[in-house]
Structures are given as C-alpha cells and as structure tokens.
C-alpha cells in the first residue's frame, strides 16, 4: 500500500474515533448508512423466504421496499460526501457501524414474524435518523438534514404498511417503548 494512502486512511480512522465518541451528524449518519445496507440484505432474505396466503403481494412489496432502501443507501453516501464526510464503503465498516442484527435462521420465521422483525428494524433505524437530523441542523448541514427527514418519512410509510399487514395501526405496539421512558 502506498504510504500516502496509508496516512490518509489512518487520519480518517482517527477522526472516526473522535466523531463517534462526541457524536457528529456524519458519525450518526454512518450508522444509518450501515443500517440501510443491513436492511437491504434482510429484505432480500425475507423476499426469498416469505410464504403464506399473501405471497405475491408480499414479494412485490418487499422488492419495492428493497429497491427504495438501496436507492436511499446510495444517495445517502453521496449526501455524506457532499458535506465533507467519508461514508463507510466496505463490508467491514458496515458491520462495525450497523445496529441491526442479521441471522440466517430468520428464513424459518413465519411471514408475521418476518414483518414484525422488519418493523422493529425500521424503529431502530429511525432512532439514529432522529439523532442525525438534530445533529445535522446543529452543524448547519441542511441538505443532509432535509434528506434524512425524507428518509424518515419513507421509513414511516413502510412501517405503517407492514403494521397494517400485521393487522395493527401504524404505531400500535411501538408507542409502549416511549411510554416506558417516562
């Protein structure tokens, strides 16, 4: 490896360490980026293994959602570059910064369990999005903030659709987590 490239990478890693201990919009958004990469993989797994009476509609929904998530992933990487950040770009980094869990055994879950898992993943992702929106505003990174607000809205729609598929209202079973904090 060229010495100049190694020095640049080491400086990036040092800055990443600082940014994650005193959260910045860039650091928080890197978690979101990694979560989107993981969510895409989980959507593939679900699309491949879903079964049940709604098979065709579920497959179409999951495929559409995965394509949307992949598009947001790519655009978010560009957003980070545009505000002077260095987004994660390899599997090792995505694995380090993701907050969603993968499990090969998920393929054996029922369709209801798979959708409930995805709703939970969206809620976890939204926690990071909310924090990143506040940090982006604080750091005057308004285009990034606006993009994250759009992403949040899109994930809300997907969550509401999956909740309906599960026979629930959009926030049913989700607001309990917030009430426990009081």
Walkthrough of the structure:
With 182 residues, this protein is an all-alpha fold. The protein has one domain: Ferritin, core subunit, four-helix bundle (Ferritin), CATH 1.20.1260. The chain contains 7 helices and no strands. The chain has helices at 3-21, 25-49, 55-82, 91-97, 111-138, 142-165, 175-180. Helix 3 runs antiparallel to helix 6 (142-165). It is globular.
In short:
By secondary structure, the chain is mostly helical. The protein has one domain: Ferritin, core subunit, four-helix bundle (Ferritin, Up-down Bundle), CATH 1.20.1260.10.
Instruction: Specify the number of helices.
Output: 7
Mean pLDDT: 92
The residue fraction in helices comes out at: over 70%
- What letter string, H or E per element, gives the SSE order? HHHHHHH
Number of strands: 0
Residue stretches low in confidence (pLDDT < 50, at least 5 long) are 177-182
Q: Shape, please?
A: globular
Q: Please give the oligomerization state of what you see.
A: single chain
The CATH level-2 architecture is identified as Up-down Bundle
At the first level of CATH, what is the class? Mainly Alpha
Q: What is the name of the CATH topology?
A: Ferritin
CATH homologous superfamily caption? Ferritin, core subunit, four-helix bundle
Please identify the structural class as seen in this structure: mainly alpha
Number of domains: 1
Distance between the ends = 53 Å
What portion of the residues fall into strands of 2 or more residues?
Answer: under 5%
Determine Rg (CA atoms, Å): 18 Å
Largest sheet: none
